[in-house]
Specification:
The complex is a heterodimer. By secondary structure, chain A is mostly beta strands. Chain A has three domains: 120 residues, Carboxypeptidase-like, regulatory domain (Immunoglobulin-like); 199 residues, no CATH class; 635 residues, TonB-dependent receptor, beta-barrel domain (Maltoporin, Chain A, Beta Barrel). Chain A has a 22-stranded antiparallel beta barrel. Chain A has a seven-stranded antiparallel β-sheet with strand order 7-6-2-3-4-5-13, with no helix packed on it. In chain A, a hairpin with a 2-residue loop joins strand 10 and strand 11. The longest helix of chain A is centred in the first third of the chain and has 13 residues. The two termini of chain A are 20 Å apart. Chain B is mainly beta. Chain B has three domains: 132 residues, Immunoglobulin-like (Sandwich); 76 residues; 93 residues, no CATH class. Chain B is 10% helix and 38% strand. Chain B contains five helices and 26 strands. The N and C termini of chain B lie far apart (62 Å). Classes of the chains: A mainly beta, B mainly beta.
Chain lengths: 1006, 392
């Protein structure tokens, strides 16, 4: 019952003193129920009355009863917020001649919780309790018994109402038994008469009263004079609060101004800290922006939902913002240091999901640059091919993120190649983030929690890649009750379950996806190039989280995926990801935290050439990466500094190739030497912010090293991170930063996109690591009442040690692979302009990016040097890039999402000459990547339908009807030429999604 | 499933249709200094090396046949023996290497008339593989001609080409021949416009031939035995006229060096096998011929010294399956609008096929020329000397 109330009233807060609870309750932020009635027992008006509370009788002017929570409400003045007295300490109330008795206070266990009114039923004693139940189905309750609204759009506008019901109990052998009197009998009942000067408990049966006598004598007293009056002396009020504290009084407040700390307890500013949890699931809510009313003091909650601010003395307003949670504002009076624990509620409407982040003013509060945050809600509402919410495709809608084509698994961040992105899922490395040729990403949005993409200022705790970090964490799971979701799409289905194993302690999340795409692939025309193919994938996520106590948390997560497909003949491809990780987090207080994690990652792929094609040459070729990792990191906050330090180690065991014959094949088994290496790193960093918040800086050093075994080779590369922010205005900030990174693992590929047969190679004696640095600067301006964020970021990046391949290179089963590779240096630069609207019916962002990404071979190999040693376009170099992503909410039920994408065509190498060789026409190609395919343009539209917002409903169905590539433009993935078997030259264009793709996606939550 | 569902399904099925579309080939511009050297040094037979130029993409075939590099080409053995090439036609130089030793190494030296010189790397002689089990087998709607190749010595890489010859027949031996260009008054008289065929006008039997354009390439490297099984030589649809009567394929196989095989495979791939989602980014691969006189000029090509072996296979009509009834193509001609049988103009691409008795206006059947003249299908009356039957 109590929890239900929490659900409907959006926000709850708990205020605690530094060590002992000051008051522990819930803030019930004012919520507008225009048609929903009220929760008071009879009338919203407060009246004078008498209270017997915690062994003391009080008289007060403004009393009422909450019939939903069965709590006594006491107001200080007409315009002040009511105080909800703890029910278990309230014995009885007398308001306007009506007595309300808490029979449980007197030990009657079988009595319902809350207050009951004694009635006279033709001489017999009957107890009546009025309950107001919060419901979310408007149904047919639009009548006098219900809410009393008259709104033709009530189904859209009303999401909740109170149902009123009176329960009657007759006394039976010293106890109570529920009865169901008829309407006329109920009408004849009258309030039980009370002898003069008698307390209402005189109406309680004698047996019960005898029990109550054991509770101790009741003392006659009254509240301090003027306590609840308008002119209450504050000192007296505070004195009473102190008394309440002494008695461990627990009270609930609605729209209350919270007092934090004791007066005179120290010198301002005071340190206020606390936690933020999801009221429904009990999960900690990370990345909540907590700010004071001045906007100068702010912080984000960490993974444990903890936050801490330094606040000036006196009254203020704390705001809690997180894009997927309802906004919360809490009035506080800071007298000293203290704790404020907050519960937030997830936004019910899914129509406001086109946010990257709703952290208003967020850019003005952190020194770091290039951080983009997403969540699963955003992902599911960005239109995508076949309607499946896709993490990678959503990431691609962000400025500075590009890909070489629609069906490519990887992505490119600010001119970096696809292997330069560290993709983490719960700390485990994902080497191939795509399913089904890259049509779908490897991440199940049902279990994905937060998604963070670091494009520029990469925190010092991350390392190993030189372009970006995509850190994806799965949710902990609902700690209160079992939930699930089921999704059906054209090609895929997904199912997820989550819930408590030990309530409040241990939770789980289980998700899985699979595909049934073969039915479609079998219908592909022969001339499409995919005829005769088959494809399938599946993946499973499992997460277990156990909270040992308020300090220690252990999370174990696992991910497994499998892909298999064949294009033609009996040649098949398979690859799989496996990640297992355990993370222990210890947060003894809000200033210190320690995180230790360990895990095992594995990526393997296999190519099989079947026996039917070549009996002697049938083989199975596989490569594999295995890595074990240990990470430990600590954070310590002191004053205006937040220090972090730690270390990590990764042990690699990379199998570059294993060839085995199939059946009676004559292929000789062959195994390339296992590559093993250790990558240990240490790091330390600091975040500093001036008291007024105008200046802030982040800096750190990461001592990165790499030891390759057989042959032994050691690399040591210190990396640096530095960024700063200057905010001359509250809504305007300037930032700059520089960071350097090192990468010891290379993707070996001669294709533009990540292919299933790509393999990886560790740096070693023959191949140096990749290194890179990036300098960036930006301006951030928030206008129109914090509704629109404008940002302009520029960057310049240099890279060395990137691998390219020689013409005709053999990349598979090559014992001397380094001889076929060349190392290149790269440079990338660009400007990203972004406009983002986060509130209102229309939300989304518009971005324009101008950027270049160029490569140059590092060594001179004479005529064979790539492009003669000149700079050439990287495969993902697309100078102009426009993205528009938005969501327009018509009503709570209906919204449309749209996604527009335009970019310059990517560079390609095309034939520029032709000649005869052995009587066949052959092609001579241009300089590498000297030409471009046609520009890319795509518009996607989706209609999102949320049939109901009923939280009490067992199931919740939503649907998305959309169309990918509405204009049906045949966007080129690549352009190629063929000589038709050596006869004549013909040009072709490969278009992955060459027409409109309508889709329908159904999702059921339960 | 109701109609609406069917429509929806149809829309879905169109999703991935036609993923590859024609793309206009833009005529390239610019000049290329590179020359093309194609052909291997053939030990034990006449070597033919062809020189050519590179032309802008989109150039017409006729344009590419106009000019060829001219100069002096020699084949040099590591013993010092030299064979000088003789210019034949269209850039082809021939060398009498029939008695060239099968041991040692060879290289090619080129000196163009304008003075530019090229030389290939020394190439050891690759022994010829054995061709075995050359046979045809039907697989679905095609006849596949496959073989096994067995290496000798240290041979691991192979190339094979073929030359196919086939005999085919016209549908009918005509009863009559049309006499064209008669005076206008004679054109209405069936007795005058037809004649009997002369003995040398037998166009029923024809032969045709074609060489393979795309060489087959294979490798047994990495296998425990130096052998390739079921190597595909050619694929012929079962309805193809080539196998309607008698078909012969001469398969020539040679060894290749590892570099030569890689180069030829790369050339083949980038010319035909690009564009899929995971195709390698195309590029040019350097061969083993280098310009020795100046920089900036490349020679495209890879020259190996190889021995070749040949095997022959005949295929009868047993695989030929074609639902073809020539009678459905013959017809009795209609007069023109003036009532004249103006065959010269109306039926210029047709011929009389058969006649029942004396020709009249209504009893002479005509048909497409190919029904009675096998040459209309591209063949000739020239029968190979070694053809194993008595057709003529």
């Amino acid at each position: 019952m109590r929890r239900l109330f929490v659900w409907l009233l959006l926000a709850l807060g708990t205020v605690c003193a530094a060590q002992t609870p000051l008051y522990r309750g819930r803030t019930l932020t004012e919520y507008n129920f225009p048609f929903n009635g009220h929760y008071f027992w009879s009338t919203p008006d407060y009246s004078a009355g008498t209270v017997y509370f915690n062994g003391t009788r009080f008289s007060a002017d403004l009393l009422n009863i909450n019939a939903h929570t069965q709590e006594l409400l006491v107001k200080e003045s007409t315009f002040s917020a009511p105080v909800a007295a703890e029910q278990s300490l309230t014995a009885w109330i007398s308001i306007g001649g009506v007595n309300y008795v808490n029979l449980r206070y007197y030990g009657m266990e079988e009595a319902p919780e809350g207050f009951l009114v004694p009635l006279d039923d033709s001489g017999r004693r009957v107890w009546m309790q009025r309950r107001k139940q919060f419901l979310r189905e408007p149904g047919d309750h639009n009548g006098p018994k219900g809410i009393g609204y008259d709104d033709p759009k009530y189904k859209d506008n009303i999401i909740a109402y109170f149902r009123i019901k009176d329960y009657y109990y007759a006394e039976r052998r010293g106890g109570l038994k529920q009865i169901h009197p008829g309407r006329s009998r109920r009408a004849a009942m009258t309030p039980a008469a009370l002898p003069p000067e008698e307390a209402p408990d005189a109406l309680i049966p004698k047996e019960i009263r005898r029990k109550a006598a054991q509770l101790g004598p009741s003392a006659e007293s009254s509240l301090p004079a003027g306590w609840f009056s308008k002119n209450a002396p504050s000192d007296e009020r505070k004195a009473l609060l102190a008394a309440i504290e002494q008695e461990a009084l627990i009270a609930n407040y609605r729209n209350k101004t919270y007092e934090i700390g004791r007066q005179g307890s120290g010198q301002a500013p005071f340190e206020v800290s606390g936690t933020v949890h999801d009221v429904a699931s009990g999960e900690a809510v990370p990345a909540v922006l907590v700010t004071d009313s001045s906007g100068k003091a702010y912080c984000y909650t960490d993974e444990q939902g903890r936050w801490k601010l330094k606040l000036p003395e006196g009254a203020g307003l704390l705001t809690f913002r997180e894009y997927s949670m309802e906004d919360m504002d809490i009035h506080v009076i800071v007298n000293g240091s203290g704790v404020l624990d907050v519960l937030m509620r997830e936004k019910v409407t899914a129509l406001q999901s086109a946010y990257v982040t709703a952290n208003g003013m967020a850019d003005h509060r952190r020194a770091g640059m290039g951080l983009e945050k997403l969540n699963s809600s955003t992902v599911t509402h960005v239109p995508s091919a076949f309607g499946e919410g896709d993490v990678i495709k959503t990431v691609l809608t962000l400025p500075g993120v590009k890909s070489v084509g629609e069906a490519s698994s990887g992505f490119n961040v600010r001119g970096g190649s696809s292997d330069q992105n560290l993709i983490l899922l719960d700390g485990g490395t994902i080497y191939n983030p795509g399913h089904l040729f890259g049509v779908f990403s490897a991440f199940n949005t049902d279990v994905v929690g937060d998604i963070e993409l670091y494009k520029s200022s990469i925190p010092v705790r991350y390392g190993g890649r030189i372009s970006s970090v995509l850190d994806i964490s799965t949710r902990e799971g609902n700690s209160e009750r079992l939930h699930g979701s089921l999704g059906l799409g054209i090609l895929t289905s997904h199912l997820a379950l989550e819930g408590p194993i030990v309530k409040g302690k241990t939770t789980f999340v289980l998700g899985g996806r699979t595909t049934y795409s073969d039915w479609l692939l079998k219908r592909i025309p022969r001339n499409s190039g995919y005829a005769g193919g088959s494809a399938s994938f599946s993946d499973i996520n499992l997460g277990l989280t156990h909270r040992f106590d308020d300090i220690n948390t252990l999370k174990i997560s696992g991910y497994w995926s499998r892909d298999g497909f064949s294009f033609r003949g009996d040649t098949t491809f398979r690859y799989s990801n496996l990640d297992i990780a355990a993370k222990w987090t210890r947060k003894p207080d809000s200033d210190n935290s320690l995180t230790v994690s360990a895990g095992y990652d594995q990526y393997s792929n296999t190519l099989e050439r079947g026996y039917a094609t070549d009996p002697l040459g049938a083989f199975s070729l596989s490569t594999q990466i295995r890595q074990g990792f240990v990470r430990a990191g600590a954070v310590h906050r002191r004053g205006s500094h937040s220090l972090s330090w730690g270390g990590d180690g990764i042990f690699y065991a990379l199998s570059p190739g294993t060839l085995v014959p199939i059946e009676s094949s004559a292929v000789l088994p062959k195994t390339l030497a296992l590559e093993t290496a250790l990558e240990p790193s240490l790091y330390a960093g600091d975040e500093w912010r001036s008291e007024d918040g105008v200046l802030s800086a982040e800096g750190g050093i990461r001592l990165s090293s790499f030891l390759a075994f057989s042959p032994a080779k050691f690399y040591f590369n210190p990396e640096f991170r530095l960024s700063g922010k200057y905010s001359p205005l509250a809504n305007f900030s300037l930032k700059a930063g520089i960071n350097s990174m090192t990468q010891y693992i290379h993707l070996i590929s001669n294709t533009s996109a990540i292919s299933p047969m790509d393999t990886w190679k560790l740096a070693g004696a023959d191949i140096a690591p990749q290194k890179g640095w990036q300098a960036a600067a930006g301006a951030y301006w928030t206008i129109f009442g914090s509704t629109i964020d404008l940002s302009l970021e520029g960057y310049y990046k240099r890279m060395t040690g990137c691998l390219d391949y020689k013409s005709g290179a053999v990349l598979s089963m090559n014992e001397h692979l380094a001889d076929d590779l060349v190392q290149t240096r790269g440079k990338a630069y660009g400007v990203e302009l972004m406009l983002r609207k986060q509130t209102g019916r229309l939300t989304g962002w518009l971005s324009y990016t101008w950027s270049r990404s160029l490569l140059q071979e590092m060594q001179d190999r004479g005529p064979e040097t790539i492009n003669g040693g000149a700079w050439y376009n990287a495969p993902h170099d697309k100078p102009h890039d426009v993205k528009l992503v938005g969501n327009y909410k018509f009503t709570h039920r209906y919204s449309i999402s749209f996604n527009l994408d335009y970019s310059t065509g990517r560079p390609v190498t095309v034939p520029v000459g032709q000649f005869y060789y052995d009587n066949a026409v052959r092609l001579m190609y241009s300089m590498r990547n000297a030409y471009r395919i046609p520009d890319y343009f795509r518009l996607d539209l989706a209609l999102n339908i949320e049939p109901g917002h009923y939280l009490k409903a067992f199931t919740h169905m939503s649907a998305t009807i959309g169309c990918y590539n509405v204009t049906g433009r045949r966007n080129a993935y690549s352009v190629f030429y063929t000589t038709s078997g050596g006869r004549n030259v013909r040009g072709y264009m490969v278009s992955v999604f060459a027409t409109q793709i309508p889709y329908l996606s159904l999702n059921l939550k339960f | 499933m109701n109609t609406r569902a069917h429509i929806f399904l149809a829309v879905l099925l169109s999703v991935l249709t036609g993923c590859i579309y024609p793309f206009s080939v833009e005529n390239g511009e610019g000049e290329f200094n590179d020359i093309v050297v194609s052909g291997n040094i053939l030990i034990g037979e006449t070597t033919r090396i062809t020189l050519g130029y590179v032309y802008p993409i989109g150039s017409a075939v006729s344009e590419m046949r106009k000019e060829f590099p001219r100069g002096t080409i020699t084949i040099e053995h590591d013993s010092g023996q030299v064979w000088k090439g003789t210019y034949q036609y269209r850039g082809v130089y021939s060398f009498d290497t029939a008695s060239a030793p099968a041991e040692g190494s060879y290289r090619l030296n080129i000196r163009l008339d304008e003075g530019t010189e090229f030389a290939s790397d020394w190439a050891a002689v690759c022994p010829a593989p054995e061709i075995g089990n050359l046979h045809a087998e039907q697989s679905g709607g095609v006849v596949q001609i496959v073989m096994d190749l067995k290496g000798t010595g240290s041979l691991w890489h192979y190339r094979w080409d073929y030359f196919q010859t086939w005999e085919y027949h016209a549908d009918y031996i005509p009863d009559l021949m049309f006499i064209p260009r008669l005076p206008e008054g004679d054109r209405e008289n069936p007795a005058k416009i037809y004649r009997s065929p002369e003995p040398d006008e037998d166009y029923y039997y024809c032969w045709n031939s074609a060489a393979s354009v795309e060489p087959g390439l294979g490798s047994s490297k990495g296998q425990s035995i130096d052998e390739i099984q079921n190597a595909e030589v050619a694929t012929i649809p079962v309805s193809d006229m080539r196998i309607s009567h008698l078909y012969c394929i001469d398969v020539t196989a040679s060894g290749l060096s590892e570099g030569g095989r890689a180069w030829q495979q790369h050339l083949k791939d980038v010319s035909n096998d690009t564009g899929s989602l995971f195709s390698p980014t195309p590029s040019d691969m350097p061969g083993n011929i280098h310009c020795t006189s100046s920089e900036g000029i490349n020679a495209i090509g890879y020259v190996d010294a190889v021995c070749r072996t040949t095997s022959r296979l005949f295929i009868g009509p047993e695989y030929y399956k074609r639902a073809y009834d020539p009678d459905q193509y013959i017809f009795i001609p209609d007069p023109d609008e003036d009532g004249f049988y103006n065959f010269d103009n109306l039926y210029i691409n047709n011929s009389p096929v058969k006649c029942n008795g004396t020709p009249t206006k209504t009893n002479v059947y005509w048909g497409p020329k190919r029904c009675v003249d096998c040459r209309a299908s591209g063949g000739t009356k020239t029968k190979p000397e070694w053809w194993p039957n008595n057709d003529k």
